[in-house]
Design a protein that fits this description.
The two termini are 40 Å apart. The chain has helices at residues 11-22, 34-40, 55-60, 77-89, 102-110, 119-132, 162-165, 206-216, and strands at 3-7, 26-31, 46-49, 68-71, 95-98, 115-117, 136-143, 146-152, 173-180, 183-186, 199-205. A six-stranded parallel beta sheet has the order 3-2-1-4-5-6, with helices on both faces. By secondary structure, the chain is an alpha/beta fold. The chain binds adenosine-5'-triphosphate.
Length: 217
Amino acid sequence: MGQFAVIGLGRFGSAASLELMRLGHSVIGVDINAKIVNQMADQLTLAAIADATDEHALKDLNITTCDAALVAIGESLEASILCVLLLKNMNVKEIWAKATSKPHHTILSRIGVSRIIHPEEEMGMRVAQSLNYPMVNQYMSIGQSLYIVEIKITEKCQSISIEELLREAKDSIDPLLVRRKKDIFKLIKLNFVLEAGDSLVLAGSLSALKTIAPRLV
Ligand code: ATP
């Protein structure tokens, strides 16, 4: 179980903190707005009304012991940056922060934030990818243009083997597993025969994965 601090409980911060709780972690939620904190109080490990730019208030919350802190204040550039600097001074190991503009991103990266998130842009890209490839349930970038994708097998691919599906790109795509209802098949071979409704997880370069896309719909 990890221990996280989420600073700023707006739509982004509250969604992140509730999901961390659902995943079994401990979450300290902080917001300057008493009404928001009271609404979240029952759902987080600890919810505190505090100004994240107030060094003493942050120190009192024991955030130093957290595995990571997520600064989810977007509108006030000043509050976001000051809060990150205070967390750094308190030796918080891992700081992630939301950015709402390019200058905001530049400053956050210069002061050493581990991961900068642009919620609207990142979600917009995900939605466009889903519209472009509706058969792709999930995807994750693992760097160097490599992706892990989860593909829903449709009637069109019923009873074909993985080898056949990956014909054009089988040397550059690795099949990782197949989920069929409650069963998970790991270390699958190329002669594994697919059924409609299967979820197939593959790893490969974006260009190789694109070559098989037309065969899936
Ligand atoms: P979202 O899109 O996540 O709803 P928003 O852009 O509408 O956020 P923000 O200004 O990013 O609003 O604020 C997010 C949350 O951070 C709000 O709940 C706000 O009360 C809180 N917040 C703003 N400044 C501070 C601060 N100095 N200390 C603590 N919390 C703050």
